[in-house]
Amino acid sequence: MDNPNGESPSPLTALTAAAVSMHELYTEYVKAGFTKAEAMEILKALITKRP
After folding, report:
1. Degrees (nearest 5) of the Cα angle 43, 12, 24?
2. pLDDT digits (tens, 9 = 90+) for 12-42
3. 46 CB contacts (<8 Å, ≥6 apart)?
4. Choice between 50 and 30, residue whose per-residue pLDDT is larger
5. 10, 11, 24, 25, 45 from 16: Cα distances, Å
6. Closest C-alpha among 22, 47, 28, 18 to residue 10
7. What is the pTM of this model?
């Protein structure tokens, strides 16, 4: 079903899209050599905007 401006609705909510992006970042940090704990700390810093 199309919305009023003729575009198909996204199957992902904004929250789901953000979660997917965060998971991709986490996965790439681990691939780059960070430990899982370090990758999580980086994401936490990004989410809370801590330096």
Report:
1. 30
2. 899 999 999 999 999 999 999 999 999 999 9
3. 25
4. 30
5. 11, 9, 12, 14, 20
6. 18
7. 0.71
Identify the sign of the CA torsion 34, 41, 37, 22. Answer: negative
Which structure tokens are listed for 48? 């809370």
Looking at residue 21, what is its pLDDT?
95
What is the C-alpha to C-alpha distance for residues 35 and 20, in angstroms, rounded to an integer?
Answer: 20
For residue 16, which of 28, 5, 24 has the smallest C-alpha distance? 24
How is residue 50 written in tokens?
């801590």
- Give the pLDDT confidence score for residue 15 in this predicted structure: 93
Q: Which amino acid is at 3?
A: N
Count of C-beta atoms within a 10 Å radius of residue 7: 8
